[in-house]
Amino acid sequence: MNFIEVTVLDLIIKGFIVGVVASAPMGPVGVLCIQRTLNKGRWYGFVTGLGAALSDILYALITGYGMSFVVDFIENGRNLFWLQLVGSVMLLLFGIYTFRSNPVESMRPVSTSKGTLVHNFVTAFFVTLSNPLIVFLFIALFARLAFIVPGHLFEQSVGYLFIVVGALTWWFCITYVVSRVRSRFDIRGIWILNRIIGAVVIVVSLIGMIMTLCGNSLY
After folding, report:
1. What is the pLDDT of residues 151-176, one digit of tens each?
2. What pLDDT digit, counting tens, does each position of 84-141 carry?
3. Is the dihedral of CA 82, 9, 164, 155 positive or negative?
C-alpha cells in the first residue's frame, strides 16, 4: 500500500469494517446485550453495546499507538506482505474459535430490576474492558487492512471515529432485529448467529490470505 495515496474514504471504510468485526462475535458482552434487549427492552440492549464500543475504541487506540512505533517496518513493502499474511492467519484462527465457541456459556442471570440506562452502559463498558485479549483482534484487523497510516493524522482520526460508527451500527441493528423477533429468538438463535459470524470471518480471512499470497490486495 502506498501511504501517500491514502484517502479519508479509505479509512472510513476500513474503520467501519473494524468496528463491525470487533463487535459482532457473541462473546460475554454480545450475549449480555441480547439478554438485556429481550428482558429489559431494545434501548437497554443498545446502551450495553454503546458501553462495549467505548471500551473497544480505547483498546483500538492503544493498539494503533503501539503499531505506530514500527512505522519503518510497516512502510516496507515486503514487511507489509508478511504483516497482512499474519493478520489473515490471526483472523482465520479467530473465526474458527468464534465458530466453535458456545456463546450460551456466557449467559448469566439477568437482574429483575432494569436499572438506569447509565448503569447498563457502565457495566457493559467494564465487562468489555476486562477482556484485554481484544487487542490481538485489533492487531489482526489493523494488519490485514493496513489501517495504520503514519503521517496522516486527520485521516487516521477519522478512521478511529468510524470504528465507533461501525460498532454502533452493529449494536443498533442487532438490538433492532432481536427486539423485532423477541418471541421467536431463543438460545439456539444466539448459537446460530455466532456460527454465521464465525463462518463469515473464516471466509473473508481465507480470501484475504489467498489474495495476499497472489500479490493482490482487497484494499
Report:
1. 778 888 999 999 999 999 999 999 99
2. 788 788 888 888 887 887 766 655 655 556 778 999 999 999 988 888 888 888 988 8
3. positive
